[in-house]
Amino acid sequence: MTARDRRDRDDNSEGGFTLLETLVALALTGLVLSALATLTAQFLPNWNRGIDRIQHSELIGISMQRIAADLAAAEFIPPGSDEKKKPLFEGTPLSVTFVRTAIGPNAGIGLDVVRIGETTDRGRLVTVRTRTGFTPLPEGVSPSEQLHLADPVVLLRAPLRLSFAYAGPDKVFHDDWHGADKLPVAIRLTVRDTTSQHVLAVSTVTPVHVDTPAGKSDDDGTGDNSDAQNNDNNPVNGPGKRGGS
Predict the structure, then answer these.
(1) Domain boundaries, the chain
(2) DSSP string for residues in 136-201
(3) What percentage of the chain exceeds 70 in pLDDT?
(4) CA 83 to CA 79: how far, in whole Å?
(5) What is the DSSP track for 39-79?
(6) What is the largest CA-CA distance in the chain?
(7) What gap in Å lies between CA 120 and CA 152, rounded to an integer?
(8) With contact defined as beta carbons under 8 Å apart, do 130 and 149 qualify?
(9) Which residues on adjacent β-strands are paired with residue 116?
(10) 27, 43, 111, 166 from 182: Cα distances, Å
(11) Higher-pLDDT residue of 142, 23
(12) What is the pLDDT of residues 128-162, one digit of tens each?
C-alpha cells in the first residue's frame, strides 16, 4: 500500500458521524422536545384561565354600566293617570322596579317598566333585566299584579350577587324604597362574590337624574316668572305717561 492510499483511507475514516454520536444527538433532541412540551402544557392552561378571567371581568363591568345607566334614567311616573300620585318605583335589597324611557333597536317613543333583580335559571341564581311597555294602571291595582315583564337579559350569574341600597336627600342609604313621594337621589350597587364574601371593585353608586315630577320644584319658582309676565303685559306707566300728558 502506497503512502497515498494510506492518506486517502485516513481522510475517509475521519469524515461524518459515528453511530454512537448520532444516537446521543437524537437523545438530546428528544429531551429538549419533551421539556418544551412539558412547559407548553403547563403554560397554556394558565394562559387560558387568565384570558377567561379578563373576559369575565369585562363582562361584569359592562353589565354594571348598563344597570347604572338604567337606574340613572329612572323617571317620576305615577302608576295611574293621576299626576299627584307617588312614582312607580319599588326598591328592595335584591330587586328594583322603575319606569324609564324605552330604549332598544325596535323601541318606539314611549316608556318602559324595567325590573332588575334575581331569579333562578337551571337551579342557580342569576340577576336578570326584564321589561314591558308602560300603560297607566287602574285605580287600586297593584303594579305587581298587572305587569307582565318579558325580554329577559341575564346580567350576572352565580356566584356573583347584586344588592341595592337607596338614599334620599339626606344621603343615608336604606335597604328598601317604596311608597315614597320622590325617587331616591342615589342608588348603591354592591356586587359580592358569595364564595369568598368579597365585594368586587365594580360596585358603585349611581345618581338618579330625576327625583320629582316634571315642572315641579321645591320652591316652585313661580314668583319671578309671574312678575316677569306682569311686567311684559303691563308697561311701566311712569315717565312714558308723564311724557304724553
Answers:
(1) 1-220
(2) PPPTT--HHHH---EEEEEEEETTEEEEEEEE-TT--EES-B-S-SS--SEEEEEEEETTTTEEPT
(3) 74
(4) 9
(5) HHHHHHHHHHHHHHHHHHHHHHHHHHHHHHHHHHTB----S
(6) 155
(7) 12
(8) yes
(9) 96, 129
(10) 80, 56, 18, 12
(11) 23
(12) 999 998 988 776 666 666 788 888 999 999 999 99
82: its cell numbers: 293621576
Split at pLDDT 50, 70, 90, the class of 215 is: low
| Cell 454512537, residue located | 20
Q: If you compute the radius of gyration of the chain from its CA atoms, what whole number of angstroms results?
A: 37
- pLDDT over 50 (residue 242): no
Q: Cell triple for residue 165? A: 341600597
Specify burial of residue 196 (Cβ count, 10 A radius: 0-12, 13-18, 19+): exposed
Q: Are 213 and 74 in contact (CB under 8 A)?
A: no
Contact between 228 and 205 under an 8 Å Cβ cutoff? The reply is no
Helix, strand, or coil here: 116? Answer: strand
Q: How many residues does the chain have?
A: 245
The lowest-confidence range among 25-29, 35-39, 114-118 is 35-39
